[in-house]
Amino acid sequence: QCLLADGTSRITCKNQQIHQFIGISTFSEYTVVPEDNVTKIHPDAPLDKVCLLGCGVSTGYGAAVNTGKVESGSTCAVFGLGAVGLAAVMGCKVSGAARIIAVDLNPDKSEMAKIFGATEFVNPKDHSKPIQEVLRELTNGGVDFSIECVGNVEVM
């Protein structure tokens, strides 16, 4: 269950305890977190810069550049095009990947993925066969690097 370190959740709705995703609920409008999970920023700080204090960009970019060590000329697939996935696409591009196949269920993310460096977009819902088979056919054998940015065990 997704609780705080002390085993509780300080959020309720209609007298029901609300479990916090990874203990922090980053997708909620309001949340309660331990004080060491909070960073105060100046009210005038530019949000387009301080957003880098979160883990999305460094996690995705680092997965491609540092952990995966994507190679120049390679073919990559990035699953999930949220902040982490888009940053992974960017990391693949900076690393010199020749093909970057962005994979997501939401077709609205296709154009943004291409802005970040994706060369192709594939929506698994558009195919009757498993996505790994689609990618194998699309690449004549498979990708060199696959980066999962959904956080879903089935995708992994």
Automatic annotation (TrEMBL):
**Annotated Pfam families:** ADH_zinc_N
Name the cofactor(s): Zn(2+)
Q: Which residues form the Alcohol dehydrogenase-like C-terminal domain?
A: 83-154
Q: What is this protein called?
A: Alcohol dehydrogenase-like C-terminal domain-containing protein
Q: Which domain of life is it from?
A: Eukaryota
**Keywords associated with the record:** Metal-binding, Oxidoreductase, Zinc
Q: Where is the signal peptide?
A: none
- Name the Gene Ontology molecular function terms of this record: metal ion binding; oxidoreductase activity
Enumerate the InterPro entries for this protein: ADH-like_C, GroES-like_sf, NAD(P)-bd_dom_sf
Source organism (scientific name) = Cirrhinus mrigala
Looking up SUPFAM superfamilies in the UniProt record yields: GroES-like, NAD(P)-binding Rossmann-fold domains
- Keyword tRNA processing part of the UniProt annotation: no
